[in-house]
Automatic annotation (TrEMBL), chains A, B:
Protein name: amidase
Top-level taxonomy: Eukaryota, Fungi, Dikarya, Ascomycota, Pezizomycotina
Any matching Pfam family: Amidase
Keyword Hydrolase: yes
Organism the protein comes from: Penicillium angulare
Keywords for this protein: Hydrolase
Active site: 131, 206, 230
InterPro entries: Amidase_CS, Amidase_dom, AS_sf
Amidase domain span: 75-534
Top-level lineage group: Eukaryota
Family: Belongs to the amidase family.
Regions crossing the membrane: none
Length: 552, 552
């Protein structure tokens, strides 16, 4: 047994070790006093002008320059290591930082390129940040549990192996909340990870370290996981892009997880980045390695350019058919989110597309069901890991992991699984019904991803906008739309809540506190149609004026 | 509560009703005294010469003639209804028989063809037999449980809907064992279904009614399900062809099942027929209906001709690489099976292919694991359904459903799921290792599907040859190879058992009793590579001289 105080010592020692992993030269003399630190990396003097330029390039451009010898892997790696070091000091977003190993890996890649006159793969020399769950041989995976400190991994996760084979360079493992089952990022080892756009705001979670480091460009491509919004919420709160692929599209084998072996609702892995093109670069690189030969859960579907072209063709002649809903009938989003849905609708209209209202089908049933699934083991697994060290549970944890819920019986779990399947099939039927009504295919659903913009700490309550698509297992791409604006988004004084959760969420809205907070939407497609959803997200992004890179 | 005798009355009444569903004109005056009744339909005088011809045609030829107007749906349906009626009287293979509805459906199809000059779909007018689990509006689904008698279905299962849309005609629901969890077919409603090649032999199970009716050509295309061999064993025991597709290839939604909602190992649905081409016809017809728009578990993969062509290309230049194993290290197959594996190996060698020995990887672990998964709920679900009417459990049931096993805890189920996934990934690694050794792709694994030829009643014991690929979720096609032969397959008097199960299985071998019993093998491919496995099975069948139809 562990004595009551010892977890604190272990955690403190670990926290100091993380700080100590930052080389002396990259340490800030003093931290900025402002809450907004987004631009501080460019001002702090740690990065040279060319390093700043490198870290501001898209991943697609970086791999192009790396692949043509215009950039060296060592220089790119060094630039991102330095920026990540600054990010860590500002945002507290790391669990592991290993710049030396990264630079050694980059050096080998440069040597290979010099001698072989070719790259090792499509990500040759590209630094990729990894959420803590991804195992990298020799580094530690703690999952935010004090009890796991000191567990060094003996093998790479499958995805890490394949990314490595594709030429990716690893330099950092990013922070997660204790248990992973919270959409903020706080644990008893490192404390809290904060949002570069305002340290009073959450960076989201559970891939919160990824959200923060991508947001401040201490990484150009990060890997997160999502079982209830954990890729999409951090992407949304950091004005970034993220994709929750369908289960089985990308390899999860060999990763750490909460509730390992739970298969009723699968956690999925996927990229967070600063553009759709960069998300596609990741997808294409991983799929080109045939992950289905390494992870039995991965479906043998290579990247299908024809699916992208099919959407581009539909855009070119006649336009897309998009269903949209501003609220799910359980919790009404805050004014900035409602405005974002409106802007997307207008942009689609102006872009020549066809927008149809979507009636969220039994979302309350679905959200209640997935909440029961999360807690099916009476939260035995996670609380065991918490108790192992004697550390306390973090705030908010009871929203998804209520230990007062009884452990389900196997037959009850089977019943939940049956309900899930039936609900998924009914949802498909609704999709078909709308298609029958309009006599054409519905290409995607656009919806809020969260009822709020980047939220203040310890306020995240309602997971339903994200988690419904985990239950339905539909691919969802988050794109940034706008920022909360106290002038455009006044409080709705006439608000009539639909229930207690709705009242609680709405009462938290404060136009001043949210001013400037990133606002995103999600674009949802049919299962395993990642190529299509990404192509649609690209079109919507372009209509919103977000970026203009070309997709293939 | 139900009194102890009443289940017997209910079952008897139902059994009589099934017999009464056979029109007077199609009833046999007397049953043949022989045990071998395979050719009796041609001799009994119920079917006309042209009806006999129709029922001897392959499904591919039938749909061709139906689609060109050479045959009428009514005539084809009538022929199969009559032959099925004879089959029922000989083999006891039905739970429901509805020739009137079938003929009405066929008449509508003929009218459509006449007026529209085209077919409704690729199966226009083709009679398809359905395992009891498939729901057909207005008919009963009993699953072999007395307690379920009288439950009439209000809706078609998804697969039934799609087959109907493709033009299939339904006329019979075939027998299953109580609970489905036995590879023989016996229940307290109809008794036992027997093998047309010898009534002392099992027709296999749980899709045993399908095996028997396909074997005697009372059906040309049947639909079964498989969670531990239930498509493949009946196909094997009746010298027929069957495919256990990967989970998610074909739609299971809306079907009845034992242990509904159990998702640790999925039961899958698939065809049993008399040739590979007919299996392909089924697959193509169903996939052309986009089943993924109706059943959330179906993966959006249309039939890929390119995959068939890829195998045909490999056959044309250089040959296939096939791994093979004669025994799994737990139970040694009977002499006829070992001879069949030898013949396949010789045929492959002669055909210019490359055969490599496969070391079955941890099959004992895998078989034990799937047995634990079957019984994870302490068999609560199935014994509840048995007890509901007061009927007794059928023989053999404890082999897979041992009620003495304790109900697992949710965390224990998660652990089983994790073990399953890790085992699947390790199996993939073994596959890659062999490929690395030979420097080429391994196209398939050839293995026994059962340690015995068509077995005598109540003797089926060892499911491991079949169930290991349910656990691994790999597609497996069963093809007939030969028949047990008392002269070629003497008892191995020097047999040294590897364990108790091995001793039990081997001791049951009797060259006289097995003489003439069908012997099959299975051909196993990578997950979701159904097109490739079928194309390879076609090649092996051709090399064995089974048939010569062309695949596309």
């Amino acid at each position: 047994m562990v004595d009551a105080d010892s977890w604190h010592k272990i955690a403190t020692k670990r926290r100091i070790a993380i700080q100590d992993s930052i080389p002396e030269d990259w340490r800030l003399d003093s931290l900025p006093s402002e809450e907004i630190v987004l631009n501080f990396p460019g001002q702090c003097g740690i990065l040279s002008r060319s390093e700043l330029e490198i870290t501001n390039l898209p991943a697609t451009e970086l791999v192009y320059q790396l692949g043509t010898g215009k950039l060296k892997a060592v220089d790119v790696t060094l630039a991102f290591c330095k920026r990540a070091a600054v990010a860590q000091q500002l945002l507290n977003c790391m669990h592991e930082f290993f710049p030396e190993a990264a630079l050694a890996q980059a050096k080998q890649l440069d040597e290979y390129f010099l001698s072989q006159k070719k790259t090792v793969g499509p990500l040759h020399g590209l630094p990729v940040s990894l959420k803590d769950q991804l195992r990298v041989k020799g580094t530690e995976t703690s999952m935010g549990y004090v009890a796991w400190i000191g567990r060094r991994d003996e093998e790479d996760s499958v995805l890490v192996k394949l990314l490595r084979k594709a030429g990716a360079v690893f330099y950092v493992k990013t922070s997660v909340p204790q248990t992973l089952m919270v959409c903020e990022t706080v644990n008893n080892i490192i404390g809290r990870t904060v949002n570069p756009r305002n340290k009073n705001w959450s960076c989201g979670g559970s891939s919160g370290g990824e959200g923060a480091i991508i947001g401040i460009r201490g990484s150009v491509m990060g890997v997160g996981t999502d079982i209830g919004g954990s890729i999409r919420i951090p992407a949304a709160f950091n004005s970034a892009y993220g994709i929750r692929s369908s289960h089985g599209r990308l390899p999860y084998a060999g990763m750490a997880n909460s509730m390992e072996g739970q298969e009723t609702v699968h956690s999925v892995v996927g990229p967070i980045a600063n553009s759709i093109s960069d998300l596609c670069l990741f997808m294409k690189a991983v799929l080109s390695e045939e992950p289905w030969k390494f992870d039995s859960k991965v479906i043998p579907l290579p990247w299908r350019v024809s699916e992208v072209e099919s959407i581009q063709g539909r855009i070119a002649k006649g336009g897309l058919n998009i269903a949209i809903y501003p609220q799910d009938g359980i919790v009404c989003p805050h004014p900035p989110i409602l405005r974002a849905i409106q802007s997307v609708q207008s942009a689609l209209d102006k872009g020549g597309h066809h927008v149809f209202p979507w009636a969220p089908y039994k979302h309350e049933f679905g959200v209640n069901l997935i909440n029961k699934i999360y807690a099916a083991d009476g939260c035995t697994d996670v609380y065991q890991n918490i108790k192992l060290s004697g550390e306390p549970a973090i705030p908010n944890i009871k929203d998804l992991l209520n230990p007062d819920l009884p452990k389900a019986d196997v037959n009850e779990v089977w019943d939940m699984q049956l309900q899930k399947w039936q609900y998924q099939c009914e949802y498909l039927e609704k999709w078909r019904q709308l298609e029958d009504e309009i006599g054409q295919e519905i290409d995607a659903i656009v919806a809020p991803i969260s009822p709020t913009a980047a939220i203040r700490h310890d306020q995240f309550r309602y997971y339903g906008y994200a988690s419904i698509f985990n239950l339905l297992d539909l691919p969802s791409v988050v794109i940034p739309v706008t920022f909360a604006d106290k002038d455009k988004d006044p409080k709705n004084e006439q608000f009539q809540p639909m229930g207690q959760m709705d009242a609680d969420v709405q009462s938290e809205y404060d136009p001043e506190a949210y001013h400037g907070a990133p606002v995103a939407v999600q674009i949802v497609g049919r299962r395993l149609s990642e190529e299509r959803v990404l192509a649609i997200a690209q079109e919507v992004s372009q209509l919103l004026g977000n970026n203009i890179d070309h997709l293939s």
